[in-house]
Amino acid sequence: MRVQIEGSQAVADAVALCRPEVIAAYPISPQTHIVERLSRKVKQGDVGRCQFLNVESELGALSALIGASAAGARIYTATTSQGLLFMAEAVYNAAGLGLPIVMTIANRAIGAPINIWNDHSDSMALRDAGWIQLFAEDNQEAVDLHIQAFRLAEDLSCPVMVCMDGYILTHAYEPVDLPDQTLVDDFLPPFNPVQMLDPDDPISIGAMVGPEAFTEVRYLSHRQHLRALELIPDLIGVFDRHLHRLSGGLYSLYLMGDADIAVIALGSVNGTIKDAIDELRNEGIAVGCVKIGCYRPFPMQQLRAELEGVTRVIVVEKDLAVGMGGIVSADVQMALQGLQIPVHTVIAGLGGRSISKSSLKRMIQDARAERLSEPHFLDLNWTAINEELARGQDTRRAGPVAERLLRVIDARGARLSEGGTDVDSTYQVLPDRHLHRRNRLLDEATQAVQSRMDRMNSLNSGHRACQGCGEALGARYAVDAAMRASHNQLIAINATGCLEVFSSPYPESSWQIPWMHSLFGNAPAVASGVAAALRAKGRDEVKVIVQGGDGATVDIGLGCLSGMFERNDDVLYLCYDNEAYMNTGIQRSGSTPPFARTNTTQIVGDHPGNLLGTGKNLPHIAMAHGIPYVGTASVADLHDLEEKVTRAMGLQGARYIHIHVPCPLGWGSEPAHTIQVARLAVESGLFPLFEAEFGKVIRSTPMRHKVPVERYLELQTRFKHLFGPPPDTEAIASIQALADHNIATYGLLG
Ligand SMILES: Cc1ncc(C[n+]2csc(CCOP(=O)(O)OP(=O)(O)O)c2C)c(N)n1
Ligand code: SF4
Ligand SMILES: [Mg+2]
Q: What's the whole-number mean pLDDT along residues 117-145?
């Protein structure tokens, strides 16, 4: 059936047609739409008995799937960028174990600097892990490759990554032909595992292999990939017989018959390359292109045969081997060894920079005229680079190179928009950027009053939080209190999440304090390192705090946090609990309350919303570590929050404060109701306020009066389904029971 559909949705539907039995996924842009749609389909019962696991990290996702695959299930996951790297150990493991896992990579750049847009750095980083890597040019191909990937993976007992360009394909609406279930069933028989954990036939999987056989094991993996080079071309015909479309293959050719010049690329940029070639052909230039559809295994000999007749090859690649040049071009050069065909490396499209037809045409003309540098960086902004190089290391302002560069680019954008000319850029004038004159990263003369360092708030105005954001409010009060308590001697570490993103898009920063963002799952460890360095330097007066959302805290970063607790590192951890992964578009975390609707706990199926009885109580987990201080606080009572931060800052060792921060966007509450919603969470007993020292509760804040939980729930659309018609009185009663349990546990009614 041909439908106009978003790429992510089309892929989710294609995966569902393949009848996976277990899906585990962890949200990360731009993969989220795929897994959100699959979670909904599973919950609706559209994917048979398939289980969808909301896990605590990408490592958890792939690890769960390794188990599920070893137990004989057909399985699927999707990730990108930092998420792929977070699961790297398991990526190798899955390949070594020969498990037929299918994973979508919604290709995205890797930070730092953090960047959520498309390039191929992520899948390139793991190109040699033993997974087959297929690259889609458009969304139809993405659909077809997923269906082929399950068959390929299962035929070869080898995991397969299907790579599609993040946003460019995942978020693009295109007409796509989604096949009927019967056709897919014909093409893809039920999974028949070659190895399986089964009590009726016990086997050991993953035994240790010493030097006597490790090379042989690796060689056999290599052989599987060589077999894939034979199977993949055959699959085109098999797929065509069943699904009546030619799709996939190791590579495909465009106007290569009489071509002198071959352009080689992976993924969606092939579309623009073909357009550029069409125009150059009209000008009499004999150029063609080779789209690589299968990058691992690399079709070395096949490409050599195809390229033997050309006089020049240009490899356009969205990745960079820093200090070396091209990754794909190195493979192409190896394929052409001894043929005396020059191979140009063109690095393009990094971090989402668009690759225009005119730049590609100019690139081809420059290659013919021997004007390309090696490697060549397409559309590099030489003005910015030269200014930065000239500046040298003499000035040391906030942040490293990226911030400074962006200042140069912004300032240059301003000059251009004021009528200046671009003298240095060979290829294109970068679009004029919006100038953020408020920002303290700019020269002092261009800063506005909000940027002055003597301003009171540590988290300054000018950030981009949504209206009524509880997290922004909580962070401002908590960090200001920490600043006062430390006499302004404070360093803050931030996990990835809304607070980080809305406060610090380059070249802006709303932070008036030394502040650092590293990754999503490692903030407590980074802070432990800062604290250790301060100890080593004898700088006891400087204090360290960490800020993280609930996802960073209770899920992906829990291991690092536990380490920080059990070492009793001298760090205060502030968790801003908005009860879901908000930054990636509202997915369930281990702190999402029962029955709440998120994009991975949708209100469909037998148990609408999040499941009752799941999730974690992090203050209790922190207390179980016996650390000096654990407190809970809420933006409902900002004085109480400040007092708790002040108290915690006065103590030594690991300290933890869990702060309830309503999120109007994710909770579906009115921005103007943030404080009221937070207050009702406290007054209903759902969010008890207490303090604990060394594992024992020492104080709790009594409730002035108890309100029924409905008053809290009804202000938020994430619970709207509980109010019917007909109302789900059983669900509401079980939420009331949780509140009553808290009231009894902490003696909240005196
Ligand atoms: C290893 C890794 N996986 C996933 C992501 C994508 N990611 C960035 S922020 C975020 C959600 C943050 O949720 P939370 O910690 O609750 O903070 P919030 O945005 O809700 O304040 C996710 C899933 C990432 N950056 N790195
Ligand atoms: S999504 Fe929620 S937490 Fe994020 S900025 Fe908006 S209101 Fe704040
Ligand atoms: Mg959150």
A: 98
